[in-house]
Design goal:
Blueprint: E1 4-15, E2 18-29, E3 33-37, H1 44-52, E4 59-64, E5 67-71, E6 74-75, E7 83-87, H2 98-103, H3 111-124, H4 140-152, E8 158-162, H5 170-186, E9 190-194, H6 198-204, E10 207-212, E11 215-220, H7 222-227, H8 232-237, E12 242-250, E13 253-256, E14 259-262, E15 264-265, E16 274-279, E17 284-286, E18 293-301, E19 305-313, E20 316-323, E21 333-338, E22 342-343, E23 345-347
Parallel strand pairs: 3-9, 3-10, 7-8, 8-9, 15-22
Antiparallel strand pairs: 1-2, 1-4, 4-5, 5-6, 10-11, 12-13, 12-16, 13-14, 16-23, 17-21, 18-19, 18-21, 19-20
Helix pairs in contact: 3-4
Bound molecules: adenosine-5'-triphosphate (ATP).
Protein name: ATP-binding cassette domain-containing protein
GO molecular function, one term: ATP hydrolysis activity
Pfam families: ABC_tran, TOBE_2
């Protein structure tokens, strides 16, 4: 694609003749922010390392700004790819000051330009005044900000981030992830980030990739990953949800033990097909006037909201999220109605 800043086609790579990333394809447009999500060991870091030029490729190709940088016969060195990188461990130079760390990739600039860019980047990450400190005089969060400023300083075409905030506590991580989005957009940088945190990915990214066993299961907007998952794995991986068994009655409905669910089917499913319908917590609406009352088997209070686990049958449990004023206890019943807007159903293989 002409506008793609990053274009990966059928990428295959791995270790010791074993493919860890299998025929992965994706494109990222200039200025977009993307996150790769997936269970531990699915190949996220390996994908990033291949893009960075740190791992050889056994099949497929990687192009950055239209230029071929990796194939089975080519591996352009990392420093010739126009990349910035921020990894989990801070990897700052301990013997250099904050300013010198940030200036590290700016050798081609004059002293004046260098000072200006260092000051601009430290301003972006809100570390003005820290120029003369050494890394050991900074908190973990501040060190990661310096690492980000250093990666941004040479204005890379593409920034790769591998769980940059994983070593920080949750509050700080979420705060930095929020700021990161603003910083990347202000700098107009294209970025691909690996994270374990689905909420972080949804809040930050224009595009999310969900990987499983070396394969990219879906590459899509956060909205579609959540509301139109390509398969059951993505549905289960991306957010809370539960499945209710049913039978397709027509193009717009499924019959379940709790009544008819209506909405548009994602796929063409023939009437009579046995399906599992995905129900997100917001599809189940607490409503005192509803006739359907389900026993609460578990109640997770988070402060702002409550997530109720509701028993439908011995094998089926639904989830319902309410504001935290709905104070129904475990063992009691919660009155709910089904509020599906669209149907996400997966056919069951009846063997
Ligand atoms: N240097 C290596 N040598 C051999 N195998 C490796 C090497 N690095 C990673 N692997 C294996 O490749 C697979 C993918 O690893 P990778 O680090 O890409 O996964 P990941 O999705 O980033 O995992 P995590 O979320 O735990 O960081 C794993 O099975 C891992 O054990």
């Amino acid at each position: 694609m002409k506008d793609s800043l990053l274009s990966i086609e059928n990428l295959t790579c791995g270790y010791h003749q074993q493919a860890v990333v299998k025929s992965l394809s994706l494109t990222l447009a200039a200025g977009e922010i993307a996150c790769l999500l997936g269970p531990s060991g699915c190949g996220k870091t390996t994908t990033l390392r291949a893009i960075a030029g740190l791992e050889p490729v056994t099949g497929g190709s990687i192009r950055i700004q239209g230029k071929l940088v990796s194939s089975d016969s080519l591996q352009l060195p990392p420093e010739q790819r126009g990349l910035g990188m921020v990894f989990q461990e801070h990897a700052l130079f301990p013997h250099l000051t904050v300013a010198d760390n940030v200036a590290f990739g700016l050798r081609k600039l004059s002293a004046d330009e260098k000072r200006r860019r260092v000051s601009e980047c430290l301003g972006r990450v809100r570390l003005q005044g820290m120029e003369q400190r050494y890394p050991h005089e900074l908190s973990g969060g501040q060190q990661q900000r310096v690492a980000l400023a250093r990666a941004l300083a040479p204005r890379p075409a593409l920034l790769l981030l591998d769980e940059p905030f994983a070593s920080l506590d949750l509050d700080l991580r979420r705060q930095l992830a929020r700021e990161l989005g603003d910083i990347l957009r202000e700098e107009n940088v294209t970025a691909l980030m690996v994270t374990h945190d689905q909420e972080e990915a949804f809040a930050l990214a224009d595009r999310v990739g969900v990987m499983q066993s070396g394969q990219l299961e879906q590459w899509d907007t956060p909205y579609n990953i959540y509301h139109a998952p390509a398969n059951r794995f993505v549905a289960e991986f991306a957010g809370y949800g539960a499945f209710l068994r049913g039978e397709v009655t027509d193009q717009h409905s499924v019959r379940t033990s709790l009544g008819e669910l209506t909405g548009r089917h994602q796929d063409n499913l023939a009437p009579g097909t046995t399906v599992d319908v995905l129900l997100r917590p917001e599809d189940i609406v607490a409503d005192e006037t509803a006739t359907l009352a389900l026993p609460v088997t578990r109640r997770q209070f988070t402060g702002a909201s409550i997530l109720y686990h509701l028993r439908v049958s011995a094998s089926e449990t639904l989830l319902c999220q309410t504001d935290s004023h709905t104070n129904v206890l475990e063992g009691d019943t919660l009155h709910v109605r089904l509020g599906t807007k669209h149907l996400v159903s997966f056919a069951i293989n009846n063997e």
